[in-house]
Amino acid sequence: xxxxxxxxxxSCSRRFTPETPxxxxxxxLYCHSWDDETPIEETLRAVDxxxxxxxxxxxxxxxxxxxxxxxxxxTSDVRxxxxxxxxxxxxxxxxxxxTRNDSLCSRTWSCSSPYSPLASGMxxxxxxxxxxxxxxxxxxx
Length: 141
Description:
The protein has helices spanning 7-15, 40-52, 66-79, 97-108, 127-139; strands at 26-32, 56-62, 86-90, 111-115. By secondary structure, it is an alpha/beta fold. Helix 4 (97-108) links the parallel strand 3 and strand 4 (111-115). The radius of gyration is 18 Å and the shape is globular.
């Protein structure tokens, strides 16, 4: 079974996409969600290969635990592999995950950007409408 962030999965997912106009290269490739079954070194080696082939300019990680990002940065330095230059984490005003990630990124000169900073509308001024929309989605038409 080919899954997650392994090298065979990356190669297959790039080849078997629907026929649409494809760019010559990807400016920023995000590896989404940490895969427990694939060592970080294998993921970094796959990203490093894509960058050396000119298919990718920068690579980042999305939804990776902070300790995995730190391990990845260390592995990149030790193995002389390309490192993650960007990180995306779920971050709201009540979340501490983004804070830990921001601290790591500021110390390693990499970029961090949040997604869903307003908790899908729940932190906006119009909370009743957002709550009603969520309820309507749960109940169906």
